[in-house]
Amino acid sequence: MKRTLSLLLLSFICLNSFAQNLILKLGNGDKQSEYNFYYTDEVAMGHPYFGIKGTEVITIDKPVLLVEAESSQNCYLVNPGDTLVLRKIKGASATTVTRTNKKYTKVQNDEFLFFARLIKEIGPIRIPFTCPPDFKKEMSKQQRELKIRAMHQARLKYLKDYGARYKLSDAFTQYCRSLFSGVLIQDILTLCRKSETISALSVKEYAKDFDELKRELIAYPSAINNKQYQLALVNLSYLLTSAINEKKYSVVSSLITKHFTGGDKEFLLAYRLIMLIREGKLSVEVAGNYVKQYSINYPRSLYRAKVSEYYQNGVNAKKASTNTATVLINTKGNKSTWANLITQNKGKVVYVDLWASWCAPCKAEMPASHLLRKQYTNKAITFIYLSLDEKQADWKSSAASLKLPEGNSFLAEGDFEAKLARDLKITSIPRYLLISKSGQIVLPDAPRPSEAILKLEIEKLLKN
């Protein structure tokens, strides 16, 4: 399958600006291994996971950070025109990635391998949301921060030692320092607030630290295209606006404008607006006015086109509610349409799980989905599982092993090229939809089954 994605820019690598293929291939004799990677687009949206079977060809026009969707978080800098060979080593926690191109200098190849070597020696770049065992529940806020900062210093020391050994470019070193500073801010804020094993800290405990944390972010000329830096900005912005209803975008934007400047400000204004649009929290008319105003205020913004694109996606999502062109196939091979499915479930809330047999993150959410479905037994809600597999055999086999309910399990004819998928701009999965009792898609990018906020959204729709 060939896909075109908007990906994370790493502008310090000098390459041709026109689109080229990135080819990912399985190593010799590797037929069974499952590989899952993700990227982000330039406004840090989503985690477009995709699996690789045989050879995957992706068209890109900028360098990207390829991240393995495993606990190791292994990642590599890859460029347009690269050919990568993937191998699973028995007993290893991460995939071995080899770049076969011979056009690179030793410095460039050492930079390509830097993150994989760092992770092997120091550990994952980000602390996972499940708190590591060495962060004890009774640890104080200060103790947790000291431990996080110690991890940050270890990464910086590794970068310094690596640079002394392999002679990294100044631009690459500066990029890594900016990235690590973003990781530091994220871990301080998210580990202490979202961990499963540590009591959540009040946002108010960090609100007073906003200015200090913001000063710790290390700027870099292309940091606005640095995912970790971007996400640190996002977390700081939510800290700043925690006492405000986020639907009041005009108030949110005023605060962001007051505390951020330049590309950081333009990114945050775009990100917060896009999130409101994606989550269906603004009407089409209100969102359209904000999008228009953004374009007027920032005519040269790097994010102007993305804001408009996500707005149009939101408009298309509303239209997709009544789309009749997408054919659905049930487990018996019978065909129906998306429109018929929506009509049959009028009067009920519908939660749609878009998945595929090759998508490891999709399958990882299934236990939470089964539990949620049981909790809503005899309620006015239907759970639909819609596969975007290319082959019926792969879908049926995986659906059976996952014990998906046959009556609500379907294959979308055309996979990612199905009209429904195109209307909703579905280029990555897992993806979830929430549909109201009237048959309208109200959340075209709904929370995952494992996210607590999903229940709140479902309850609101059940009451209407």
UniProtKB/TrEMBL annotation:
KW Signal (keyword) present: yes
Source species, domain of life: Bacteria
Keywords: Cytochrome c-type biogenesis, Disulfide bond, Redox-active center, Signal
Entries under Gene3D superfamilies matching the protein: Glutaredoxin
One GO cellular component term: cell envelope
Entry keyword annotation includes Signal: yes
Subcellular location: Cell envelope
Domain Thioredoxin residues, every copy: 317-463
One protein family per Pfam: Thioredoxin_8
GO biological process: cytochrome complex assembly
Signal sequence, renumbered to the chain: 1-19
UniProt name for this protein: TlpA disulfide reductase family protein
Organism encoding this protein: Pedobacter sp. KACC 23697
